[in-house]
Amino acid sequence: MQKPYPILLDLSDKKVGVVGGGNVAARKVKGLLAAGADVTVVSPVINDRIDRQKIHWIKDRYAADYFKQMDLIFACTDDFEVNQRVKREAKPFQLVNNTSNKHHSDFYNVAQINTDNFMITVSTNGVSPSAAKQLKAKMLTWLKTQYPDERR
Ligand SMILES: C[C@@]1(CC(=O)O)c2cc3[nH]c(cc4nc(cc5[nH]c(cc(n2)[C@H]1CCC(=O)O)[C@@](C)(CC(=O)O)[C@@H]5CCC(=O)O)C(CC(=O)O)=C4CCC(=O)O)c(CCC(=O)O)c3CC(=O)O
Ligand SMILES: NC(=O)C1=CN([C@@H]2O[C@H](COP(=O)(O)OP(=O)(O)OC[C@H]3O[C@@H](n4cnc5c(N)ncnc54)[C@H](O)[C@@H]3O)[C@@H](O)[C@H]2O)C=CC1
């Protein structure tokens, strides 16, 4: 991604498809549900950290047909080739986050801090997600000193 364009999306009632149901999918699903998205997970198995009451679960392997109606798609399987296929088979208007290949993704997720009044996001543009996580932790410490009454 050469020059990404940062935006905040309103996902309430958007249809979001997640391929795979492991650790990475669980993290993405948590954030998506918090944003009010209508989430469908397609995976033969899903992690206990994914709340089955709050998503639609299609207990199957990836097939493009399941994703025709989706606005956004997250490819989160541990199979690099399947994740590549998800990106390749998406419609031109669908945006895909390929979690195992940053060079084959339409968008990246960011590390975030949400408080009553601020949303602070950190990205390294794909270079080092763990550095983004570390900077977020430092910013949180700093934020507490600057805005002690701010709730998060
Ligand atoms: C490109 C991107 C695409 C995307 O997912 O959107 C991406 C890609 C990849 N991540 C990998 C690994 C890890 N990712 C994390 C954590 C997070 N990753 C997130 C975002 C992004 N990760 C996007 C770029 C963000 C940026 O530019 O900064 C965060 C910020 C937001 C979120 O997704 O929740 C979240 C922290 C949230 C928080 O806690 O605050 C950890 C640490 C952990 O899990 O504790 C590890 C293990 C340690 C390590 O390797 O760093 C691998 C290697 C896989 C492999 O081959 O093993 C790839 C694949 C690749 O690089 O192509
Ligand atoms: N972007 C990010 O933030 C990160 C990305 N990764 C990448 O994410 C990949 C997945 O990692 P984890 O979630 O930890 O793996 P995991 O092993 O916990 O989960 C993999 C999931 O994919 C499902 N799956 C496998 N083949 C499938 C298919 N054909 N169709 C549908 N579902 C299928 C499995 O049932 C399982 O639920 C890793 O291989 C790594 O490349 C890893 C860490 C962070």
From TrEMBL:
Transmembrane feature ranges: none
Record key words, sorted: NAD, Oxidoreductase, Porphyrin biosynthesis
EC numbers on record: 1.3.1.76
GO molecular function: ferrochelatase activity; precorrin-2 dehydrogenase activity
Catalytic activity reported: precorrin-2 + NAD(+) = sirohydrochlorin + NADH + 2 H(+)
BP terms from Gene Ontology: siroheme biosynthetic process
Pathway info: Porphyrin-containing compound metabolism; siroheme biosynthesis; sirohydrochlorin from precorrin-2: step 1/1
Name this protein carries in UniProt: precorrin-2 dehydrogenase
Organism phylogeny: Bacteria, Bacillati, Bacillota, Bacilli, Lactobacillales
